[in-house]
Design goal:
By secondary structure, the chain is mostly beta strands. The protein has six helices and 57 strands. The longest helix is centred in the first third of the chain and has 19 residues.
Amino acid sequence: MVTLVNRAKVDTATTGTGTITLGSAKSSFQTFADAGVVDGNVIRYSIEDGSNFEIGTGTYTATGTTLTRTVTESSNSDSAINLSGSAVVFVTATAADFLPPAANVTLDDTSLVVAVATDVQDFADKTDEALLKARGTGFTSTYVSTVAVGGTTFAQPAVNGEIYSDQGYFAIAYGGATNITVATLTAQSTYVYIDNAGNLQQQTSIPTRQDWSRKMFTMRISVDTVAETILGFEYLGNPIGHYANSIRDLFQALIAQGVPFKGGQVITGRAGDLGFDVGAGTITEFGGTGDINNANVLSLDAVSNATYDLLSRTAIATEDETNLVKFWDNAGSITALGSGTFVAHRLYRFSNGQFAIQYGQGNYANIVLARAGLLIEDYILNERLINATFFGWWIIGETATNTGGTTLTEFREYTIGVQGGSSSGLAGCLLRGNNLSDLLDVEAARSNLDVAAATWERKTTTYTATASSAIIADTSSGVWTLTLPSSPATGDYVQLLDGSNWSTNNLTVGRNGQTIEGDAADLVMNIGNIAVNMVFDGTTWQVVAQAGAQGSSFKSAVIAQVRNSAQIADVNSTANFANVAITGISDFMDTGFTAGSTGIVCGFTGRVEVTVHIRMDSAGVRVAPRVRAAVAGVGSPIEAATGYIRNTSSHDKASSTATCFLSVTNGDEVTLQTAQGSSETTACIGVLGGCMISIERK
């Protein structure tokens, strides 16, 4: 018997047809001696020399490390090949080493039991029944279904399978059919199955667990109930075996949560229109192939300027759209986007490649709020999309003209995974609700998920904040200014918390070259016990405040006020309105206001609430004074008036107040104007100390 060893392979420089001198071992192999061959062993060898080969047995000699050659098979008519000097020799096994030699066998039949045919059949039937109970209902062959999208028919190819349920065992061999009409075009879903008689059937109700046992389901067809045509389909192939049935249930549960079982298919915008392109990729389905060990992976080609069906929460609105629409689903009412607002539509795809978009159900002031809001919308999904693959959200603004290279549109892919992994490679999942405590590198996860924990710092004097900073602003020692980051990126934020009482010592938030809520003015915090979040949306700092024990609201504008300290005589002796110079004492708690020659100058464009108050006396016979506010000399239509006053000790003084809302532009001066209301030309109005102009931004 020959000696066999593992991984013995060497070079030989021998030429000719004689005994071989063995050389050094090949890379990753060992010499014959290292493999365990000893002097005198007979081994099975093989020689390779270019295109020539030789198989035989040989005797190994340790001294000189030689090997004799007794050839059993070769490329040289089973004779020794003529070695070139660069051959390779190795120990191997041949078929002869595995086949025992033929010999006569004597059978002792004293204990041999021979079963009659009926016993053998009974045993086989019981074995089959046991195996089928373990396997359950499902397919034993593959199939590829098709539907006529936009039509009413479908094709179900031939398929084999088994049904084992409480009704018994049934071997299924369905022959296939084409041009099958969907029976009910008024139901959103039709489930196609083979019954235990081998006939194709349809139902509109969602399959129960008993249905999955008694029927072999092939697909679910999604129907446009308005047009009464087919929208798309999904495979629903029963997998063989109870374990696989449990996996199917898990898969369906994940699908119900919107988990995207897809690879590739990158969504990109277009520079010239509001359409989108889709890269090549796959969709993974469970069932449809009949192979429980391999998922049904559907390969889809790239699509340029994709067409899609547009759905509301209950119906299909339009078909074959290409551009994203600037409407949103307002509690079931399709509404045009308001000026400058955004919506986040949802993008889906069926296994036949058809796309569908369902209207977003939220309306947002800017794209930053849309990114945050789309994740928490109380969304009502159209039933037609239950089993479709969810890709993500298309965000679009009211003024958008294209989807490529713009800040007015954005596609947000729905992704899952340990640290934001995409659906092309599912790396696992975690809960944000557990504060990410189940990760080894928590800080890395926080950073990658953009949920980095804020580290609060207490500041008591002038300070410039950085992005993502959290500041406890303590003004107990006096007012000071906190300056925002100079070059913020979209999404940067700063969190502020009252560290003492801002209503006593105000905190000024310096805008640092940007605007705050659209205004080119610093923000003065004059309400105590509040927390303020400031988020940069790419254009301006958005302000969101939460009030504490001493506040119920927060306004981004504060009061500016001027008043006079001394009496002014004879300010007007005509029936026409004229400015009254209110100067002397100023309280400016907003740097957007400055003192003017007769009133208050506004350093911004916007709306203001103005209150003017005047105290008057009369040096004439009698006068009926009127008062109003004015912007750049143009008076408000809102006036206040008193009755007659005259130059007597008991009737010579009066006061009046007027409040109105006005529009201002940068540089406008707001003034107080008064006029007499009588025709006595000798009358005039005098102004006492304590008159006032008060302005508040709105």
